[in-house]
Amino acid sequence: MQAALRQHLGGARWALRVSEAALRPRCVGPASPPAPRCWSCGGPVPSAAGLPHFCPGCRALQPPGPRPDLFRLMDCDRSFRLDVQRLQRRFRSLQRALHPDRFGQRPPKEQHYSEQHSSLVNKAYQTLLNPLSRGLYLLELNGVEPAQETDCDADSEFLMEIMEINEKLAESKNEDSLEETETLIKVKREELTKEVTAAFEREKTCFLSQELRGR
């Protein structure tokens, strides 16, 4: 009887040790992704975090990364306030390096990558150049989905301004009146852009303040 109890007790202790070992946290770090390799020569390729890059061994253009940060791609600060001249210089530089015409004698795969890069650069340039699309992209990066507004949701004063501009356009009889309306629209757009810039910067300041208070 005692032998049977000792056997059961020994089995229970063994089961307890096994369960404790199973529940004990293991110091296992995250699995490192395999080092990228060049599609052409198979050599190691340094990670470029989605930026256009070439193999250091064979100089083959590598494919674009998934969902690159358009601000980083265009060498711009992630901010609604943008240095347009800097953006334009970066756009011209990337287009010179990546335009498909430069890859006409390269393998078909590299030609395809060149087309992908060139298309992505165009998209990034147009997205960041336009204040509206730039603002929407900033919201997307911050996980904010803009509400889909209708005319019923819009501010009544804003709708009146739009109606007045439409009426002026309809009544314009000559080039001078069209230029006057164009100037009015440009001024209004600049005012709205300044308001949105200030709103983004206020939100950023508020976020930084909350982060600092939490530390």
Question: What does this 3D model show about the protein?
Answer:
- The chain is mainly α.
- It has 7 helices and no strands.
- The protein starts with a helix and ends with a helix.
- The N terminus is likely disordered.
As a percent range, the share of strand residues is: under 5%
What can be said about the biggest beta sheet?
Answer: none
The topology string of helices and strands comes to HHHHHHH
**Content-based structural category:** mainly alpha
- Compute the number of helices: 7
Counting DSSP E segments of at least 2 residues, the number of strands comes to: 0
Helix content: 55-70%
Report, as a whole number of angstroms, the end-to-end distance. Answer: 63 Å
General form: elongated
The Rg value, from CA coordinates, equals 29 Å
Round the mean pLDDT to the nearest integer and report it. 77
Low-confidence stretches: 1-27
Topology (elements, then pairings):
Layout: H1 2-23, H2 70-73, H3 84-98, H4 108-129, H5 131-141, H6 156-171, H7 175-214
Helix pairs in contact: 3-4, 4-5
Could you write a compact summary of the structure shown?
With 215 residues, the chain is mainly alpha-helical. Helix content is 60%, strand content 0%.
Features:
single chain; mainly alpha; 7 helices; 0% strand; 215 residues
